[in-house]
Amino acid sequence: MRDHQATRLADGFIFLEGPKWHDGKLWVSDVFDHKVYRIAPDGSREVMCQVPHRPSGLGFLPDGTPVVASSKDHRIYRIIGGALVEHADLTGHATGDVNDFAVDAQGRIYVGNFGYDYDAGDPRRTTHIHRVDLDGSVTVAASEVDFPNGMVIIDQGKTLIVAETWESRLTAFDLEDGVLSNRRVFADLGHRQPDGICADAQGAIWTGCFNTGEFLRVTREGITDRVAFDGCGVSCVIADHTLYMTVYCGPVADLVAGQRKAAVFTLPVDVGAI
Predict the structure, then answer these.
(1) Rounded to the nearest 5 degrees, what angle is found at the Cα of 75, between the Cα atoms of 125 and 92?
(2) Is residue 274 assigned to a domain?
(3) pLDDT given for residue 172 in this prediction
(4) What is the CATH number of the domain that holds 65?
(5) Sign of CA dihedral 29, 35, 41, 43
(6) Nearest to 257 by CA among 8, 66, 32
(7) pLDDT at 163
(8) Do residues 70 and 84 make contact, with C-beta atoms less than 8 angstroms apart?
């Protein structure tokens, strides 16, 4: 396993989730500051919209329209001219905060949720991954998933990988015509709890590990690379040959207190984006 040192690009945020690369810039949700940002390669930033009920997962529809998960009101919105336009209502479907997601080539969104009221301290429960079609209709894509978090689609659209945070594993599904099947373990991460994930051109998965402050490159054979931080590893995305990582640079107690210790770091990587 190779260890690497990353470079700080931008900081002063509260908690950054769902990084995605689009048209030469990084899009990211600051969950507890209720904002979606767009960050340029030089670290400059602009607010793209406000999301009052906590933005989380981000993605882009096939026509380039950005979409964002709004955690607390269980909805997915399109971002149009800085305003939110409802794309799908998961009320009555999601049993916890709506979280991260992946978008396939046909614009179908595969989205997870916490499965229970985490903030209220409710008992842990498994939940569903839901599929949201372009018309906003919602169906169950997979069941009995334990805190589905980051997701990514690999193998030319044939495989979906999801981080099951509380199970400390990456789980794979076959993906065909919007249907998930053949569930299996892609990687057992032992004590590490995966959060956001992305994939490189070789089908390896980079994952942030919230409890250990690491980012790992994981293949079916094991861990090949690691970036360690003093804090919490959250999420990541690859653009060209650069890995962008969102990190909370402090203990969870500081995050709960709303201290602005979240940052974006970069790392050159040998294997680039899909």
Answers:
(1) 50
(2) no
(3) 98
(4) 2.120.10.30
(5) negative
(6) 32
(7) 98
(8) yes
